[in-house]
Amino acid sequence: MTSETPTSSKPTGLHDLFQRYIQRELLPLLADLRLAIALLLAIALFSISGTVIEQGQTLAFYQANYPEHPALFGFLTWKVILWLGLDHVYRTWWFLALLILFGASLTACTFTRQFPTLKSAQTWKFYQQPRQFEKLALSTELERVSLEALEPLLHQKRYKLFREGNALYARKGIVGRIGPIIVHASMLLILAGAIWGSMTGFFAQEMVPAGQTFQIKNIFDAGPWAAAQIPKDWSVHVNRFWIDYTPEGGINQFYSDLSVLDQDGKEVDRKTIYVNEPLRYKGVTMYQADWAIAGIKVKLNNSPVIALPMGELDTGGKGRLWGTWVPTKPDLSEGVSVIAKDLQGTVLLYDNQGTLINTLREGMSAEVNGIRLTIVEIVGSTGLQIKADPGIPIVYLGFALLMVSVMMSYVSHSQIWALQAGDKLYVGGRTNRAQVAFERELLSVLDALTAEPLSMTSTKP
């Protein structure tokens, strides 16, 4: 005789308990409109903080701009910013958690409310009793009018008709019920694009002298999966950098002529960029953001051209100046300080005592300490902001769908019922929006059935 071990029902019981918890507790909580509004407000608040507080800057920047004494607003210091991650808000775990939770709320609302509403709107049902028309927002009773006469009038108004014996059901505007679902789907796409961009994107800054080639190295902020987005098989050459000045001497616009080079040094793309006109290549965008003076080229008597670097001087916030020291003797015992404030070609010469001894422009020469000093060229550097955000196409798609779905949501879903009972025709209807327009439309249909204007009875204020 064989015996069988009874199958334990515990796993099944736990599974059923888990399903009931999801259906009765978790989904209603996630689909709660109050939770969605609270999450949306929190996301908006922290997004604003990410706009106000500079993102991806250095520690020294935050220490200088958000000191502990006095603290901004009494509490906002550089320590608070770094501890909360407000220097890279969009990549913090708590901000991504808010996005995911908001996405879960939208998904729960879609499946628990929007899909059932759409399913109900697609299911037609007939009214078989005159008393059923009393619960409709608009209803009336007509005599000596047939159901057959009503059908073509509703067809003209682009209603879809369903008939069963002496009962008729008509509807139009089902797209208005689909619109909210697509609204939710588009918002989920936007959230997915934002999360994907935060995880895989990066932000870098480069200050590159004209004539040099660089690869993206100086990365300030990057997502945990950004390594694949940082280019390693191509570089960028700065062909030229220049600034257009106004007649008053102010900066009008600055430009960088950039070439993208492959691994063999062959040019595969080229563009002159300026503010609000970046270069885009393989998902990486380079913006013109800053400038500086990299160095100066000089000649001493008949010597070859000597290139010297220039450093930015501390002016205490009174403007930007760059300077360098040019030796005039081989033993470096004497020399002259060269100061420049822009790329217009004018430099100032100071002796070792700090006395201004001359002013020169590019191509000009002057006698200094017994030698002829010629200013050949002032070399500028272009300041580039470099970004990669693979989530942007997804976000753009989400916004495109959002615009379309919002317009769809404004379409009224209208329903009309009719019942032929002897020589009487009962007609009623309702709509989810544009109540006045729907009433006028229904009245025009009924007026066409009779010789005189009709009035509708309403069961709702």
Helix tally? Answer: 9
- What count of structural domains? 3
Main sheet summary: 7 strands, antiparallel
Counted beta strands: 22
Mean pLDDT: 87
| Rg from alpha-carbon coordinates | 37 Å
In which range does the helix fraction lie? 25-40%
Structural class: alpha+beta
Low-confidence stretches: 1-10
Instruction: Calculate the terminal CA-CA distance, rounded to whole Å.
Output: 77 Å
The portion of residues forming beta strands comes to: 25-35%
Shape call? elongated
Nutshell version of this structure?
This protein is α+β, with helices and mostly antiparallel strands and 461 residues long. Helix content is 33%, strand content 33%.
Explain how this protein is built:
The protein is 33% helix and 33% strand. It has 3 domains: 90 residues; 97 residues, TATA-Binding Protein (2-Layer Sandwich), CATH 3.30.310; 183 residues, no CATH class.
Characteristics of this structure?
461 residues; alpha+beta; TATA-Binding Protein; 3 domains; seven-stranded antiparallel beta sheet; elongated; disordered N terminus
